[in-house]
UniProtKB/TrEMBL annotation:
SUPFAM superfamilies the record matches: 6-phosphogluconate dehydrogenase C-terminal domain-like (SSF48179), NAD(P)-binding Rossmann-fold domains (SSF51735)
Domain Mannitol dehydrogenase C-terminal: 205-346
Similarity remark: Belongs to the mannitol dehydrogenase family.
Binding of NAD(+), residues: A3, V4, H5, F6, G7, A8, G9, N10, I11, G12, R13, G14
Lineage, uppermost ranks: Bacteria, Bacillati, Bacillota, Bacilli, Bacillales
Record-linked InterPro entries: 6-PGluconate_DH-like_C_sf (IPR008927), 6PGD_dom2 (IPR013328), Mannitol_1_phos_5_DH (IPR023028), Mannitol_DH (IPR000669), Mannitol_DH_C (IPR013118), Mannitol_DH_CS (IPR023027), Mannitol_DH_N (IPR013131), NAD(P)-bd_dom_sf (IPR036291)
Species this protein is from: Paenibacillus forsythiae
Catalytic activity, EC: 1.1.1.17
Record flagged with keyword Oxidoreductase: yes
Catalyzed chemical reaction(s): D-mannitol 1-phosphate + NAD(+) = beta-D-fructose 6-phosphate + NADH + H(+)
The name this protein goes by in its record: Mannitol-1-phosphate 5-dehydrogenase
Domain Mannitol dehydrogenase N-terminal: 1-189
A molecular function (GO) term: mannitol-1-phosphate 5-dehydrogenase activity
């Protein structure tokens, strides 16, 4: 069995590669980093360390690699595989779509009855594989698409494992948390497929995906944004702060009430799930940087993502949202010169104003009750943290107090 995986990064080497290799696949990574590609080709294996007390190690074997720029070689590999997976970041899916399309074209040109091909985008977010399908089909002619519809499927998925940014002497080595979960809906699969060992096939993806996205991802990024404002650089530091821990739990109780209402989870079981996820954020066996978990704030603040979607849904259901509002306000204050989305977010706030950013980027119109609540929380948070040197809120906070003075009767 052959699999082609795009992205030899943390989740690719730390999660998808190990699962597929253990399940009997020959895994071909498609990457951009020349050194990693050469090492994968030469060694055909790499080490993974579990972030537990014993630092248990295992080897992932039966792997190789191709450079993303070698389009024809990648297309050949796809033409010959049963499975294509990705972990490149949701925003980068469009960049690999043309190469995947070329692979599909080649595969279809070789047989009038090709074997099924499953293409699974293992990215955080809702509908990743379907988004990839759209991008891929933009590169194909209508007659090829028609043919592809019969043997190519793009099942959405949920993947969960924390793999921090890290550096080792061996460029292939990766340290991962022991926990992992990978869910695929049976309805997305076609033909007589081989089940991947380590993947759980379920009837409906939504409850699993939303539970993970609005607990693990919402809670994790909330801890990162709260932690950033307090001056912490790692999630471990942030989660050791009882005040932040309580606020993260507050956020997760709000998303939890919404998930219980929407999906009928047992409330006490869900509370146990929340507490287990918070322990994962605090894992002291590795260091996870605030800059990784807070990365790409514009994406994380977009309408279908981990902060806004649960806030809007909870509001719609008449549930409490004050901790979510506080997490959103903190995210709006996230600054990082090395993170292009954080730079764009702050530029947008400074040039268009926070109200316009709430309407246009977060998708919360001025007349929505959450709009004014986020605005107020944003101003209060600016004022609260104005003393923090280097955070640059002083000017905003001062202009706000001046505005408040001139507005007063
Ligand atoms: N690290 C984690 O704990 C988890 C990450 N994910 C998701 O997995 C995906 C990858 O995340 P990580 O592995 O952490 O990131 P990473 O930065 O370690 O790896 C991303 C890989 O994709 C490649 N890449 C990036 N942009 C590309 C482009 N335009 N074209 C081709 N290749 C490109 C990079 O070279 C890199 O090898 C993201 O969607 C993330 O949300 C999901 C669950 C857990
Ligand atoms: O990869 P993203 O979407 O930027 O977000 C990082 C998130 O991914 C995870 O690593 C796993 O879902 C979480 O720890 C973290 O919240």
């Amino acid at each position: 069995m052959k699999a082609v995986h795009f992205g030899a990064g943390n989740i690719g080497r730390g999660f998808i590669g190990p699962v597929l290799s253990r399940s009997g696949y020959k895994v071909c990574f498609v990457g951009r980093n020349k050194r990693k590609i050469a090492e994968l080709q030469k060694r055909g294996q790499y080490p993974v360390t579990l972030a537990n007390e014993n630092r248990d190690k295992f080897i992932v074997d039966n792997v190789t690699a191709i450079n993303l720029n070698d389009t024809e070689k990648v297309a050949e590999a796809i033409a010959d595989a049963e499975l294509v997976t990705t972990a490149v970041g949701v925003s980068a899916l469009k960049d690999i779509a043309g190469t995947i399309a070329r692979g599909i074209e080649l595969r279809l040109s070789r047989s009038s009855k090709p074997q099924p091909l499953h293409i699974i985008a293992c990215e955080n977010g809702i509908g990743g594989s379907q988004r990839l399908r759209k991008s891929v089909y933009r590169h194909l002619r209508p007659d090829v698409i028609k043919q592809a519809e019969r043997s190519v499927a793009f099942p959405n998925t949920m993947v969960d494992r924390i793999v921090p940014v890290q550096k080792h002497a061996d460029p292939l080595e990766v340290m991962v948390e022991p926990f992992s979960e990978w869910i695929v809906p049976r309805s997305g699969m076609i033909g007589d497929y081989n089940e991947i060992q380590g993947v759980r096939y379920v009837d409906s993806l939504d409850p699993y995906l939303e539970r993970k996205l609005f607990t693990v991802n919402t809670g994790h990024c909330s801890a990162a944004y709260f932690g950033y404002l307090e001056g912490y650089t790692t999630l471990q530091e942030a989660m050791a702060d009882p005040g932040i821990r309580a606020r993260v739990y507050g956020v997760l109780k709000e998303t939890g009430a919404m998930l219980v209402r929407l999906h009928g989870f047992d409330p006490s079981q869900h509370d146990k799930y929340i507490k287990k996820m918070m322990e994962r954020f605090a894992n002291r066996n590795f260091k996870d940087k605030v800059s990784r978990v807070a990365r790409s704030p514009l994406r994380k603040l977009s309408p279908n993502e981990r902060l806004i979607r649960p806030a809007l849904k909870a509001h719609e259901l008449g549930l409490e949202t004050s901790h979510l509002v506080s997490a959103i306000a903190s995210a709006l204050l996230y600054e990082n010169q090395d993170d292009p989305e954080a730079v764009s977010l702050q530029m947008a706030i400074r040039s268009s104003g926070i109200e316009q950013v709430l309407s246009e980027e977060l998708g919360i119109p001025a007349e929505h009750p959450l709009h004014s609540r986020i605005l107020e929380e944003y101003f209060n948070t600016c004022i609260q943290y104005k003393h923090k040197a280097g955070l640059g809120f002083e000017a905003i906070a001062d202009s706000l107090s001046k505005a408040a003075i001139s507005d007063s009767p």
